[in-house]
Structures are given as structure tokens and as C-alpha cells.
Known about the structure:
Blueprint: H1 4-33, E1 40-41, H2 42-48, E2 69-70, H3 89-96
Parallel strand pairs: 1-2
Helix pairs in contact: 1-3
Amino acid sequence: MIDREYIGLTSAIRDFREARRRAAIESLLATVSGNSQELLSFEDISKTVSLRGVVRRTLENIPLDSIVGSVGRYDDFNRRFLPRRDSDESRWARVKM
Length: 97
């Protein structure tokens, strides 16, 4: 009998590898088209943009396509939040499981 945890791990690794494949294709297309797939660093942007005004403290659904940066780990993913490094496979699999 096959262990469910093993099946889950195998599925998670397969999903990661598919996501990496898609990320590699998107990176190539971005290079050819000149469109950046990089997430921006919040720290870098906040240094150049004056953040003032009213801060709303509410929960909102934000479409993934609208997100262009991140506070942390912005260099680990592209703008569609696909993994950019093969070394993230085990972490990706653990999170999925």
C-alpha cells in the first residue's frame, strides 16, 4: 500500500517542477518582449516614493495581477508568484503538504 504522505509529497514536487517550468518560460518571454517579471522590493520603493495620507486598516481582496512587489522574499518569485529557483523545491513541497 502506498503511503498518503508519499503521494502528497510526490504531487507537491510535481507541482513545483511545473511551476518552475512555467516561470522559466515566462522569464524567457519577458526577456524577448522587454516586459519585466520581477517583483519590486517594498523597501526600495518606499525610499523613492513619499508615503503619506490616510491608512485604511481593512481587509481587501487584491488580484494577483495587481501585485508588483513584496516586503520580503521578492526575489524568490516572479510577478505571478511562480518560483524562480530550483533550490526552493523542498520548501514549496512542505508548504503545499
